[in-house]
């Protein structure tokens, strides 16, 4: 199973980078999200895969008696997902606004930094 | 001592305050500065015969860089010239630039320059000397470009800065190298190590680097062309820069380093050739000029060439001659420049063919000019005569190629005599032409400085004993490192030297009457313009500019994705090289868990969705595919014991898809913006990057993981924080402050989203 995940991680990074290299801003966001998912999965995999043993203690227990999944990567990924969402929503609104004002989605048409006077 | 050196900088810093004293008073205040310093340095003169004295101030002792000031014959000669001629120039400028709106700036730059020059010639530490060296380059840039509203003036200043700045960098390399070989930057410590340095393999490099530094500063061929350009500066500046200071700095450096680096064929031959070519080339050039300052510029280059040549000849008499010539040249060239300035100021022209008969209008100026011209020619009873005699004697002792060297020197001297006569005598003799009839005589402020210089020239020429043992001998000892005493004499008897002197004077005077300056001759020199070092330098500079523009455009092209590609390619190449080279990739099958049927299905679903998200042209499809990727991710989290992650991912993914759909649904279809080759290129780059990440992941996965931190959190989740869900405990207890900051970030993002939605950038469209 780990090998399949490694394959998916590689694929998500490849797709993410490819989309980041596009000229369309819309595609860039897709790339960003793909990269984010890939990175999350990568961290998750490196915490080792454990089936059916979440890092939650049974009621009444004070310590773990059985094996448990590594809680630390999970905490990190949880943070990353939430922050990633903040970034995505901001970017989505931003390109919506850019499109509304400039009526283009092409980054190359946004190249001049200031209006000609 | 340190106050004396830095006083100029202090004065420059207080320029705005001094200006408050009033437009007419403050130049006089400034003129007191060099005069006071001149008197101060005169006070060191009696102690000179006891040998060099070093006054030290620690600066950066840990690097061996100190502000040590060394007083010996050479540095004191320069210090006196800098402050002495400086006083005259400061005094002269009070009238010459009277009422100039930027007069305060002028005096500020001038005193800054003077202080830098003083530091340069007095520093015993080569590092400190280099810093002052650069300061002279910078302050002279401001002086040459003083008339900054003229384009040609700016260009000249830039050329001068470019050439001397380049030389300065080369010199720095030389200083560092000599410091490495000799173990010290202190000149005093390097003199005894002369033999070690000359035997080291770096010697050739040291000599080359020092020489390039000196040649650029002292305008030696092929770096000479910045000097005529620097004539765009006001005449007092030219006087100061070209008679005694700036351009002599290179000569000073060579003379200073002679005891350390000299008496070696590499050193002597190079100087001999460069000096020889420069002095002859420039002297011949000066005969084709018609502008007074231009003639003086070329004769200055030629004189500098003579000095380099004499240092290259290297016999004791030649070094003595060089020392004397520094003094003689400074005195007569400063006078000639000042006289030129007066002529320019009073008549408004510097064109030699048209200038004559001014002697009746300004007799005192004529006196200064004639004395300077005769001293330059080397007539007996003038200081120039003494230097010329010793010079010839020194060259005659050269040994090999003596005849060629003497012949070139005599020819150069003949040409220089003519150039000197043009500048110092021709404007004052003959009949006053009608167009100059209304010219008035200059005020004493202008004529006193050249006359003073003339008097000095005559006194020292008639009574050489006045400066001989007290001044000239220590100077000679400082340059040569020997202890011989050569007493200066006016009369050497009938010998070869006297014959050569007579030939020089006779041929020179004859040439003066035979060869007249004219515009047609000047026009002929333009034919060689395209191959002159100046135009080569300019096209080289343009080439460099073009190259840097290309370079910048290539790397800073304004496309974020190109930067991104560069970074990725670099990362892949460097890390990939390491991965291929030393790391063997193996898979430990014991660590790998088995695969169930639904996991394979999910993997396939995810792979297909990624493919669709990347390749589809429809936005809706892309968004939906992205949603599937997120949900499959969510399922993976769920299978492998991360229910919290699964929940978060599920809700966030849903939100993202909804937001995407709502906001971007109405955008038009994706256009195909990039061409196919670019798509293929990007595809290859990203696939390689994906493979690279996958390999890296495997590699990390195979290495044993460190779980101490996780174990700590898991074991203490209940004991310390009373929570059984370890992930939640980490987020809200162990790392609570991080979570608060994260919340703040989210709030900021939310505010940003809200403002963007409310923001109306086109008010005229939606009133």
Automatic annotation (TrEMBL), chain A:
Record-annotated membrane-spanning stretches: 6-21, 28-47, 75-95
Subcellular location: Cell membrane
Keyword annotations from UniProtKB, A to Z: Cell membrane, Membrane, Transmembrane, Transmembrane helix
Record's bilayer topology term: Multi-pass membrane protein
Superkingdom field: Bacteria
One Gene Ontology CC term in the entry: plasma membrane
PANTHER family per the UniProt record, alphabetical: ANTIPORTER SUBUNIT MNHC2-RELATED
Record family assignment: Belongs to the CPA3 antiporters (TC 2.A.63) subunit C family.
Name the UniProt record assigns to this protein: Na(+) H(+) antiporter subunit C
Provenance organism: Mariniradius saccharolyticus AK6
